[in-house]
Request: fold
Amino acid sequence: MKEYIGYCGQDCEICEGRIATVNDDDEMRKRVALHWSKLNNAEITPEMINCSGCRIEGLKTPYCGYICEIRKCAINRAYETCGDCEELKDCSLLKAIHENNPQAYENLMNG
Reply:
């Protein structure tokens, strides 16, 4: 499995939050925070946009580090990714992600 594929199958390598972190780009952090705030109907500040990647040691956004139920589940089950789980196809936690991003599902299946 590629190291930047998150537990859910999304590709952290192309995540603007990780890109802003790697490039220490405060303008990109502002844009990402505004976009994510609108998408999630929650206040997300530029200071929260610091993440190395879901399965990579280091910084995590508050959501990725402490809130994401998918990440918590995979870690608790000691899975490399959700692709290791026999419940993958019917998982209610993953449903919205895979409906909106079919490539994430493919990443897990082809890992």
Remarks:
- The chain has a mean pLDDT of 95.
- Residues 26-40 form the longest helix (15 residues).
- The chain has six helices and no strands.
- The chain has one domain: 12-109.
